[in-house]
């Protein structure tokens, strides 16, 4: 019986390590998921394919339920040393297990086919932590679709997957489309389109007060540096500004998204 | 005439470099501020003392207004090479200027003396990005005080200062007190105390509906891993839960804080 894999040159290990870069992920249409909790979510997600699992002996001993679920799904298990496992993650504290998961491929039309009540478009968002946090908040607010436009950060990066805290496996994610295409599809599906900008024509509080937010809505959030793009602004029913009562110049993207999405969620449930 | 400082052993440079660690900041009661925008905010902040400015030749040529403001405030300017400037920052893209700023020392009693309408306590919050983002959101929502409890992340770290986007210079920050002391002071000043937890006894939407949020309020947000501490829970008027409509287990701390603080800001202005 051979021991745990200890070679970074092992073909499986090397192929998985290639997924630490966006180029490698795109080429293989796969990404990495770290930790028992996230792997459990990936195994439970309908339509998501877990390709293989790298796990240390110690973690395998501890995570019996997870191993059973992986075996039940016929996922190959590879026992590796701590050193190999650490090489597959980009965190300081690896959690003993890393899995290779096939990127879901969801077409824009399919994502909007069921007439979502709440959808989110991330337009050229650059920060993976912000993108993951917005996906998590969108999930919490009951959103049915998240779209990231061409030119946005890779949502399948380790940082974004971690920041989503499992929500990347709960909400259908469409990537690599233009903002114009996303908004056209959303409006065809019956959504009001709202973009956010500091110089918006509508105040969020006014939309809450006049009942507008009860309608099915797609929210567009723009990049941290440049805000929403011109095509999103042009296609939106309203460009919405959030009130700033103090001396801050603006809100962080994830904070602004939380306020907007929860305003919609509340209005839609009244 | 000597050229720009190029030695990392220069006494001013070495003293400033010591401020990259929490230990060094605490010992010197000073912290570092990076970039022209943040330095401008620091120079403009009442009661804040900028000790010295390290700047590259190129940045000095470009930022004439900033230099004038520094000279007007009698702040020593030290021209340094790119290499020295890079050694004073913890970002990949240094912005040409770093300043040493004395930590403001604000007593709990003083911070609450003016009966704030909206205050925030960060109870054992560990992530500097989250702490800075909450400070930024608190500023935007019009909060008058932010307190971080003993055991919380150092708000004067580079990451936290950057994440606050200047708001750390807008809102009085009290650090290093217990949650119990902060809540007692806030309640003495007339604030309702609200802590947040997934198993809270009150739903945020209900507090919005029944008008409770119009009262002066101190919000307590707990650590990312463990939530609010037992002493905060015990001292709070309500432990508030945020509704989760989808499958997310919880919200990110900064997202949750944004929703709560904006709910208060809106209710207080109706």
The gist of it:
The structure is a homodimer of 270-residue chains. Chain A is of the alpha/beta class and 270 residues long. Helices cover 39% and strands 19% of the residues of chain A.
Structure description:
The structure is a homodimer of 270-residue chains. Chain A has 270 residues and is an alpha/beta fold. Helices cover 39% and strands 19% of the residues of chain A. Chain A has helices at 11-17, 22-28, 36-44, 57-62, 64-72, 82-87, 108-112, 128-140, 158-163, 179-188, 204-209, 230-235, 253-268, and strands at 30-34, 50-55, 77-79, 97-102, 118-122, 145-149, 173-177, 192-196, 202-203, 217-221, 238-241. In chain A, strands 7-6-5-10-8-11-9 form a seven-stranded parallel β-sheet, sandwiched between helices. In chain A, helix 8 (128-140) packs parallel to helix 13 (253-268). The longest helix of chain A is centred in the C-terminal third of the chain and has 16 residues, at 253-268. The first copy, chain A, is elongated, with a radius of gyration of 20 Å. Chain A binds chain B through residues 129, 133, 136-143, 163, 165-167, 170-171, 205, 208, 242-252, 254-259, 262, 265-266, 269, and chain B through 129, 133, 136-143, 163, 165-167, 170-171, 205, 208, 242-252, 254-259, 262, 265-266, 269.
